[in-house]
Amino acid sequence: MLGVMKATKVMAYQDKSSNMSPRRIRSRQWRHSRTGTAVVAVLALLLSTTAWFSLVFSGTTARCWHRFKDWERGPQAFSWGRRRQDRSSYMLQPPTSSPSPPSVPHLPFLTNTSLPFAGGELSVKHIVFGIAGSSHLWKRRKELVRLWWRPKDMRGHVWLEERVSPEEGDDSLPAIMVSEDISRFRYTNPTGHPSGLRISRILSESFRLGLPDVRWFVLGDDDTIFNVDNLVAVLKKYDPSEMVYIGGPSESHSANTYFSYSMAFGGGGIVISHPLAEALSKIQDGCLDRYPKLYGSDDRLHACITELGVPLAREYGFHQWDIKGNAHGLLSSHPIAPFVSIHHVEAVDPFYPGLSSMESLKRFTRAMKVDPASILQRSICYDHNRHLTFSISFGYVVQVFPHIVLPRELERSEQTYSAWNGINLRNEFDLDTRDPYRSVCKKPILFYLKDVGREGNATLGSYERARGKYDLKRKVFCFPQMRVLRYVQHIEVLGYPLGKNWHLVCSTEDVLQTKSDKQ
Questions:
Q1: 354: left (phi over 0), alpha (psi -120 to 50) or beta
Q2: Per the confidence metrics, is the pTM higher than 0.85?
Q3: Would 229 disulfide with which of 319, 372, 384, 492, CB 3.0-4.6 Å?
């Protein structure tokens, strides 16, 4: 009986539905589907909320939060490197209660609480040099290293691709090290050379030597000249317990565009603090696998440092010198910054006329050792009575202009050189340049360094007049302006130790003495 009643009800419902219009049927079905969707959404929201609360208040999440707080404290707590036993005093104990999120984000790479060195003022003994070289060029290039290396005071190595036979006198040079095999790394750049992989790993291999009391690692090439005293003075400005990356870009706009404006170019020198070297040594090999298309060593190193979030601290005394030809314009207009390094010294003309490249570099480095802080620093002096301008670049040249030239013009580099790629247009260089004077009567008379020595607390430099192709024209066309300088053949510059205001314009009476050799 019950089955008959159910069937009757169903038949009645079907009959009723059959009498409804199609529009009312669709409207009723739409309302049912909307109600069902709402019910499903509410149930899903309840389930997700329940799951979220269970995850937040679970023991696993609390442990993960404590581990994250330890990671946040400093770079020595990363999962990819265990802390050393001697750093256990710096390890942080997890809090007993659930911590609240920090109000200000903390960057983990900005501090390093464990110092790998004892206290005391920075000296060259706290620096380890890693010099990139080639076994095929080392016999010639080692003479360049000998110009600035101090075997009794400095630590470092020359890294070659294979062993070379020692020769007499090599004990006054850095020790030779053979780089590790790099065949396991990919290199796909069509214009570069795989040696860039080897050279980029000099930092990690130097760090793994485990030398004691190291604060800084300095990387350079075997054709780089370093002013070590100025290097130490510059590094005193920085905290070696932090992750620090120091250097300078190229002078060439094209090179900076291709590589990076925020990259330290290796030839000019790259300085890496000990904590950054430690972090790089742990990730560098894996990082190199991610950049097979890069060109050289410094861009690979820069890529890995960028992954660590460390920016470049630019110093204007590091000079990549991606130039060719006559470097006079750069040497005579050094920026107001301590001169630290130059590179590609074999690719430019000799610094001083009448000397070979090596002879010029010996004279230059001799002046650098006599007064490291003053080398290439410029003084601008005026003789208003005779309308003369003296631009003195200590250790290199004295330029005497037969007219008044303002400092704003003199601070621009006279473009006597071309870029490494052969372009000699002014917009190719990422520095202020100016065109040379076209008028013979406006060109300066040049007095190049002849000798330098010390007189008590001061330095005395003797500069000799250079004979040039414009001398005859000057005598004929520029007689009124050149009359006062006609017989001056030597200029002596007396320099005193630099003080706080060493960059200010000097007075003629304090600096210059002239000797006239009358014909």
A1: left
A2: no
A3: 372
